[in-house]
Amino acid sequence: MSVAFRRESDEDHKEPRFELPIPPGANLVTARGLALIGQRIAALEADLASAETDERREAVRRDLRYWHTRQTTAELAPVPGEDTVAFGSRVRFRLNGRERQIDIVGADEADPATDRIVFTAPLATALIGTEPGESVEFNGREDAIEVIATGAIP
């Protein structure tokens, strides 16, 4: 039989397990974001204690390494003021004739489905530094976004 058809073990053919990628740049967090990281770590530690297989334990350990790194490198951002859009702001604005509201948060807290966007997203970067009543360029259009109101995320 040809060597090409023999398999020494299943271990030789498993997909490699890579570490979870850490987003580049500063790890800014809101108070809520820091609490969520702590909750995630607690849940994973409970999973690790109840994991029944070596494969599951290793997967949970990998996730724990990621979240411990995120907790260690977290920089709690100051609460923003009411007059200028910043990290941690809730912003109400008009884009394409439609009024929207978003929260500008850190990478681990971001969830576009619930209108929580990461501070490095194009929309967030266009809004940061603006004030209510101001219009800003977005996607190559002048005055595409009109900032209506801003304040700290409650």
TrEMBL record:
<dbReference type="GO" id="GO:0070063">
    <property type="term" value="F:RNA polymerase binding"/>
</dbReference>
<dbReference type="GO" id="GO:0032784">
    <property type="term" value="P:regulation of DNA-templated transcription elongation"/>
</dbReference>
<dbReference type="InterPro" id="IPR036953">
    <property type="entry name" value="GreA/GreB_C_sf"/>
</dbReference>
<keyword id="KW-0808">Transferase</keyword>
<dbReference type="GO" id="GO:0016301">
    <property type="term" value="F:kinase activity"/>
</dbReference>
<dbReference type="GO" id="GO:0003677">
    <property type="term" value="F:DNA binding"/>
</dbReference>
<dbReference type="InterPro" id="IPR001437">
    <property type="entry name" value="Tscrpt_elong_fac_GreA/B_C"/>
</dbReference>
<dbReference type="Pfam" id="PF01272">
    <property type="entry name" value="GreA_GreB"/>
</dbReference>
<dbReference type="InterPro" id="IPR023459">
    <property type="entry name" value="Tscrpt_elong_fac_GreA/B_fam"/>
</dbReference>
<protein>
    <submittedName>
        <fullName>Nucleoside-diphosphate kinase</fullName>
    </submittedName>
</protein>
<keyword id="KW-0418">Kinase</keyword>
<dbReference type="GO" id="GO:0006354">
    <property type="term" value="P:DNA-templated transcription elongation"/>
</dbReference>
<feature type="domain" description="Transcription elongation factor GreA/GreB C-terminal">
    <location>
        <begin position="82"/>
        <end position="143"/>
    </location>
</feature>
